[in-house]
Amino acid sequence: MRGIAELLTELPIIDVSADPADNFLLAMAEAGGADYLATGDKRDVLALRRHGATRIVTTRRLLELLKR
User: Fold this and answer.
1) Domain count, the chain
2) pLDDT greater than 80 at residue 1
3) In angstroms, rounded to a whole number, what is the distance separating the alpha carbons of residues 59 and 65?
4) What are phi and psi of 56, to 5 degrees?
5) Is residue 54 included in any domain, yes or no?
6) 22 has pLDDT over 90
7) Considering only CA atoms, which of 11, 34, 8 is closest in space to residue 24?
8) Residue 1 resides in a domain
9) Is residue 44 a part of any domain in this protein?
10) Does residue 8 form part of some domain?
């Protein structure tokens, strides 16, 4: 994974999650141009369903999508 990882040094300030501790995940997804954000946090992050162009899904759903 290190070989394909993208190092993000500057993150936007995000304040959309009900749990402020989760906003860094959304900031990383936005800064990295992520298509998907996989999470098990059903109450806060997953409930958003989308952040900008990033779809927020369960890990199981992401694996299903990648198999296609």
Assistant:
1) 1
2) no
3) 10
4) -105, 120
5) yes
6) yes
7) 11
8) no
9) yes
10) no
The predicted pLDDT at position 42 comes to 83
Render the chain in DSSP notation, one character per residue.
-TTT------------SSSGGGHHHHHHHHHHT-SEEE---TTTHHHH-EETTEEEE-HHHHHHHHH-
Q: What does the block give as tokens for 30?
A: 């936005």
Average pLDDT on 30-50 reads 93
Domain that holds residue 40: 20-67
CA 59, distance to chain mean position in Å, is 11
25: its two tokens:
């995940």
Residue 26 has pLDDT above 80, yes or no: yes
Distance CA 22, CA 3 (A): 26
How are strands ordered across the β-sheet holding 36-38? Answer: 36-38, 54-57, 50-51
- Residue of 4, 5, 41 lying closest to 23 (CA atoms): 41
